[in-house]
Amino acid sequence: MLTKKKIVILSVALFALAVSLVGLFLTSSKTSEITSSETGPSATSIYRTNENRNITSTPIFPTISLVGATFIPTVTPIVQIPTASPSVFISTTLTPTSTLTPTPGEITLGRLSYIQDKDIYNTDLKSTNLLVANETTPSGSLKWSPKGSYLSWISERQASTSSVVVYHVEQRRKKTVEIGVQNFTDYAWSPDEKKVSILYGDTVGSFSKVFFTDEPTIFMELTIPIYPISGFKWLKNGQYLIWGSKGIYVFNIETEQLDMLVSQDGITFISISPDETKLLYSVSENENNEWYIKDLTGNTSASLIKPQSFDFTSVNLPASYAEKGFDSKAVWFPSSDKIFLTIKYLREFPIVGMYDISSNSYSVISFFNIKNSDFMSDPYTLIGERAASKNGSMESQIHLFTIEGQANLGLIKVIPHASSPAFYFGN
């Protein structure tokens, strides 16, 4: 027979057993949740990729040791500069979930360099490293030499004088050359990267001072009988391509002969295709702007860009918006067969689309304010400098946008308080 004492003891035992069972159930659920989290999608799997495709990164430069290099943990990289097919989708809204923890030692240099806090940095979008801590203020014009052996930039020591700084990447040494002129226009590398040419001008004419990168600074001065000059490029054939408001010229460095390539008033912008076979230039009159393409491999005249078809589907607008005409902004694709061109819409909010040279067609991508200084690092990534408001003031930033996976130039990375992006396009 159960006594009162036995009933109490039994009740306590049953209660303890029930508590144990509840605790075991909760522990099992938590363990299952943790296991599911650990075996679920990783931080990088938020980007949908084709399972049959491997995305790899091939170093552009040899691995070199930068002793004492300082690393700056800026924005966590969302994705490395894509080299893949359009089957990859890159999210433009997800926040990075991991933080870079670079360690000093062997560093593989990336293709992208920029100026930040008076210093020169380099990144492959996975890690960022300091290349040069400047004792002077870099004012911009950061450029890679044609073969990727050097970086160069303009450095301001005083308000009235500037210098060109040439930095040998592998040897980690720099050469500073005083320009000695106040009316500096631009500078350019020779195709063999043995020389640098500095362009400047006055009311008499324009001049080019050329110095050798690995020799004592002895200037070779050339006289160019036109003024003013807006810019120039040292072509692979060894000649200068020079442009101004009155036309475009070819200047022979050896003979100092100047030949007219395009005779045209009102030229507002020119751009040479990455393979240097085509010349793109805009002509503006009043508020009207027209684009022309000239083949640099022959003697054919320039052709007016007048697409046979327009596709405005992506922005839900009728094709009649093409009648507003092109704006004066353009960016080449690396393949040299396509160009980003803008159509007038709002002053700071134009329509940007892709013009296909072979099909003579124009397909709208998005509403986007492209800059003439922007560039395509690959078929899907646009890089450019932008001004942004931060803590009540404006700062310069470098933005990376993508058209991959129907992203329509969505923002994928920001490098804060950075300027003068320079990208190495060589092999």
From TrEMBL:
SUPFAM superfamilies: DPP6 N-terminal domain-like. This is Uncharacterized protein.
